[in-house]
Design a protein that fits this description.
about 260 residues, Undecaprenyl pyrophosphate synthetase, six-stranded parallel beta sheet, 6 strands, binds farnesyl diphosphate
């Protein structure tokens, strides 16, 4: 593994990325939109490898949203194909690095072959203890919250949860990957400043970094720039700057 590029103090433990701009990248070159997704796959390869080299604990990639199901069928199929291709071609390297693959979202909606590829990668890397690589697939932030509420209501009906004692920590444990800490840094490419229904619960205090680059142009050096910018931010969690700087303010890393 390469030496870390960045000092480890104040490294974001969890980075989440909205990979936007594949279509525009292609259209600007007179290519089919799917060519943008194909090149976007190269960015995924580069950024996943870089995140591991830098020492990031968790990387969550927004690969396919609930809303993306409404895209033309040909584009949906191509995206599923690229995901399968990534998992098949990279799984050996990912597994040998000790990376653990996980997936969040309504996976039951995925085509069988895609689901099989995802579940295979998750299963094969389950015991790994290196970087956690999370694919948000068929994912919607509101759907995730509704799914958590449904599971909670069921447990309440069974008497396993006392509604009076429900708190944020318990609620969060019902999310798709309730054991993961919240993202420290959210990167969005594609020159847009929207959350697009991504990790709505988890980004309450996440630092947001937007890039004007289209996703296929976003590579390792740009990830490093985003992390360097993150390292200049002061995370106050609603406190004053003086409180954050004085020791004993009682702030932990937070979820
Ligand atoms: C947004 O670009 C990107 C997506 C909808 C999907 C991201 C998919 C990849 C990077 C391909 C491979 C994925 C994995 C996880 C291996 P857009 O099409 O919305 O771009 P636009 O805003 O320019 O139209």
């Amino acid at each position: 593994m390469d030496a870390p590029l960045l000092p480890h103090d104040r490294l974001p433990e969890h980075i989440a990325i909205i990979m936007d701009g594949n279509g525009r990248w292609a259209e600007a070159r007179g290519l089919e939109r799917n060519e943008g997704h194909r090149e976007g796959l190269e960015s995924v390869r580069s950024v996943v490898r870089a995140a591991d080299e830098i020492g990031i604990g968790t990387l969550t990639l927004y690969a396919f949203s609930m809303e993306n199901w409404n895209r033309p069928k040909g584009e949906v199929n191509a995206l599923m194909g690229f995901l399968e291709q990534y998992l098949e071609s990279e799984i050996d390297e990912v597994a040998s690095r000790g990376t653990r693959v996980r997936a969040i979202g309504r996976l039951d909606r995925l085509p069988k072959s895609t689901r099989r590829a995802v579940e295979g990668a998750v299963e094969r890397t389950r015991e790994n203890r290196g970087m956690t690589l999370v694919f948000a697939l068929s994912y919607g932030g509101r759907t995730e919250i509704v799914d958590a509420a449904r599971a909670l209501l069921r447990d309440a009906e069974l008497g396993a949860i006392d509604p009076e004692r429900l708190d944020e920590k318990t609620f969060a444990s019902y999310l798709y990957a309730g054991d993961l800490r919240d993202p420290d840094l959210l990167i969005r490419t594609g020159a847009e400043s929207r959350i697009s229904n991504f990790l709505l619960w988890q980004i309450a205090y996440t630092e947001i970094y937007t890039s004007d680059l289209m996703w296929p142009d976003f590579r390792k050096s740009h990830l490093v720039s985003a992390i360097l910018e993150y390292q200049t931010r002061e995370r106050r969690y609603g406190l004053t700057s003086a409180q954050v700087r004085s020791p004993g303010s009682g702030l932990g890393g937070g979820r």
